[in-house]
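= Protein in question =
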Amino acid sequence: MADTTHIPDEANTRLAIAEQMIAHYNAQDADSYVALMTDDACEAGYRGAVLREGKEGTRTGLKAMFAEFPENRAEILKGYELGEFVALHERVFRSATAEPFEVMSIYSFEGDKVSRVEFVR
């Protein structure tokens, strides 16, 4: 019998998509970041208030944050994928002189697009 185990294309796994989002975030490319999201996606505190509503609200919010913190970047410490979810443990640097902080970002997917990102800090 032939082995019918499906091995996902590494470039298209949900973990790889979330990692792409962080690469776009680090490049301060809000347009490419939100291109990986559903139209009604949002970013929110974990189980809490929505911080950025919809693809356009996320784009606008990110552009404002990048203007305020032009050296902003995130470093992925560890990533996990389970079903429709990805969790990234990140260290975020607002500037070269600011104290970094850690965050757990939980990405919810609908197909190959992110529908919600929640931040645990």
